[in-house]
């Protein structure tokens, strides 16, 4: 993709929800050598820029932003060095994003550039707050206005009387000037009962909305404690929120959940929690490393049963077959037992149907399911791919019943280093729930934190354990498990968190 002269893509990142990036924007990130991004951009989008170096050029609390001239210069320098550059901006690059100025500089320097529009916050945040910016019979126009009064520009005020007297008005960068905006609206004769909404961090899980009228909105914002970034919406359409508020009424809206999982598997749980409205902090506590060895010594086809206790076991099986130049036909005569629907799904991806899936996902139920299905275990050869940490109950019990068990250490759990910044951010975030999906997530989580940090988290959080073994590890760490599903899989864990949250919020009403 390296073009000799380089190119700059001015890409709109959308308002926050990572799903609101355009497909073209994603393509540009995938091709980028360098990404320059702002504070309003969701950092998760940077994972698409897998080959790029990413530079933050926005404003961080307490620090000044990178001067615009310097950003312009960097864009020019990188492009002239032949790089594919993405300038990633919150919302749309041309809506109060200074994207126009950057494009002018690039045009002047004859640098090829492309503009990828984004969903601007002024439309997306109201949509997520249940406010259609236009509505038949209610508002037939929309004005996008800056609420910012830049002192360096001599306090230029927007003359609102020059804008539509009717219709919806959306003010960007105006929370600090809310009183002034309200005064101005009064001055031009807008009705005091005009509905108004102020939306903070629209489309992010932390979105909050204050609803009022021209008369009450300032007080309402103070009550809610609205802070930037936020948008001000004025107009009759704001009234529709009372009926259309879909985002903030989802079951886990506002709940802060820390998910401790292996990096490789973190997204399934996160996605399910977020779909219900939770705000998720991913804290990776284990990485899985496949073990490259000559085991198992016997061919896979020699076994009567292969018992897979996790996705990792399935991955290790396929990886080993790949290395040996084999494929699924090796398993033609082998019966497959999978613990957990995710493990079974992994086998299905390779067109392998499982023969047996225990009703509950623990060693005891697996044992009785195999005993029942196999009639006699006497002399049966069973392969058990496992981690370096798995408990010995299942192989021991199978052996007691006459089976010939091969334990194959196929993958290792490796605690990843959590940076001190990440730990500090987690503690400051005050999670209300921390999820654990295995004993090692518990142990690694506790090991990553100091005693005071752990106590700090325990003071605010309830702990969720996927099953009894995990709950025991929580107890061993001196903590209490308050959320534990009947069935030990991710959807059941999510459902248990939902039930727990509903019981709690109903109770406190
Ligand atoms: N180019 C951006 C706007 C940048 S100006 C866009 O098209 O959305 C920055 C202002 O945008 C903020 O002060 C705030 O008023 C608004 N803003 C950006 N993201 C927002 C969000 N998620 N929720 C509410 N307001 C937001």
Written account of the structure:
The strands form three sheets. This protein has a nine-stranded mixed beta sheet with strand order 14-13-15-16-12-11-17-18-19, with helices on both faces. It has a five-stranded parallel beta sheet with strand order 3-2-4-1-5, with helices on both faces. A five-stranded mixed beta sheet has the order 6-7-10-8-9. The N and C termini lie far apart (57 Å). It is α/β, with parallel strands linked by helices and 509 residues long. It folds into four domains: 7-118, Tetrapyrrole methylase, N-terminal domain (Cobalt-precorrin-4 Transmethylase, domain 1), CATH 3.40.1010.10; 123-248, Methyltransferase, Cobalt-precorrin-4 Transmethylase, Domain 2 (2-Layer Sandwich), CATH 3.30.950.10; 256-286 and 416-508, 3-Layer(aba) Sandwich (Rossmann fold), CATH 3.40.50.10090; 289-414, Rossmann fold (3-Layer(aba) Sandwich), CATH 3.40.50.10090. The mean pLDDT is 90. The protein is built from 17 helices and 19 strands. The chain binds S-adenosyl-L-homocysteine.
In DSSP terms (H or I, runs of 4 or more residues), the helix count works out at 17
**Beta content:** 15-25%
What's the story with the biggest beta sheet?
9 strands, mixed
CATH topology of the largest domain: Methyltransferase, Cobalt-precorrin-4 Transmethylase, Domain 2
Q: Give the low-pLDDT segments.
A: none
Give the name of the CATH architecture of the largest domain: 2-Layer Sandwich
Task: Give a count of the beta strands, DSSP E runs of length 2 or more.
Answer: 19
> Can you tell me the overall shape?
elongated
Give the termini separation: 57 Å
């Amino acid at each position: 993709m390296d073009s000799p002269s380089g190119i700059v893509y001015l890409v709109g990142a959308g308002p926050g929800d990572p799903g609101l990036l355009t497909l073209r924007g994603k393509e540009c990130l995938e091709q980028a050598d360098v990404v320059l991004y702002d504070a309003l951009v969701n950092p998760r989008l940077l994972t698409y820029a897998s080959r790029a170096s990413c530079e933050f050029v926005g404003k961080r609390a307490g620090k000044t932003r990178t001067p615009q001239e310097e950003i312009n210069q960097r864009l020019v320098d990188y492009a002239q060095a032949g790089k594919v550059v993405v300038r990633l901006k919150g919302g749309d690059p041309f809506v109060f994003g200074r994207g126009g100025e950057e494009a002018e500089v690039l045009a002047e320097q004859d640098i090829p550039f492309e503009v990828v529009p984004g969903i601007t916050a002024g439309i997306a945040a109201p949509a997520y707050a249940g406010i259609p910016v236009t509505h038949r019979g209610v508002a037939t126009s929309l004005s996008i206005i800056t609420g910012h009064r830049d002192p360096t520009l001599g306090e230029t005020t927007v003359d609102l009387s020059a804008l539509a007297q009717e219709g919806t008005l959306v003010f960007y960068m105006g929370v600090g000037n809310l009183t002034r905006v309200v005064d101005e609206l009064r001055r031009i004769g807008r009705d005091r009962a005009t509905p108004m909404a102020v939306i903070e961090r629209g489309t992010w899980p932390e979105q909050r909305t204050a609803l009022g009228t021209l008369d009450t909105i300032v007080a309402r914002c103070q009550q809610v404690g609205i802070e930037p970034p936020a948008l001000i919406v004025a107009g009759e359409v704001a009234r529709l929120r009372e009926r259309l508020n879909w985002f903030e009424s989802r079951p886990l809206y506002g709940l802060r959940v820390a998910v401790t999982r292996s990096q490789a598997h973190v997204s399934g749980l996160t996605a399910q929690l977020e779909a219900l409205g939770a705000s998720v902090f991913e804290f990776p506590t284990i990485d899985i490393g496949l073990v490259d060895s000559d085991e198992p010594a016997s061919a896979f086809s020699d076994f009567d049963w292969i018992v897979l206790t996790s996705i990792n076991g399935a991955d290790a099986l396929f990886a080993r077959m790949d290395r040996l130049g084999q494929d699924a036909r090796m398993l033609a005569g082998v019966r497959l037992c999978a613990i957990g629907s995710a493990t079974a799904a992994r086998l299905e991806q390779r067109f392998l149907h499982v023969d047996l899936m225990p009703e509950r996902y623990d060693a005891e139920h697996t044992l009785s399911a195999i005993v029942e299905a196999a009639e006699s275990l006497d002399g049966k050869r069973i392969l058990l791919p496992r981690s370096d940490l798995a408990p010995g109950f299942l192989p021991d019990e199978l052996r007691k019943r006459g089976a010939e068990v091969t334990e194959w250490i196929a993958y290792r759990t490796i605690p990843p280093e959590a940076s001190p910044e990440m730990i500090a951010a987690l503690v400051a975030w005050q999670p209300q729930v921390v999820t654990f999906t295995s004993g090692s997530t518990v142990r690694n989580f506790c090991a990553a934190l100091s005693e005071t940090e752990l106590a700090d988290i325990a003071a605010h959080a309830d702990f969720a354990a996927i099953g009894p073994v995990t709950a025991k590890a929580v107890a061993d760490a001196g903590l209490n498990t308050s959320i534990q599903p009947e069935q030990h899989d991710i959807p059941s864990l999510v459902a248990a968190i939902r039930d727990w949250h509903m019981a709690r919020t109903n109770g406190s009403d």
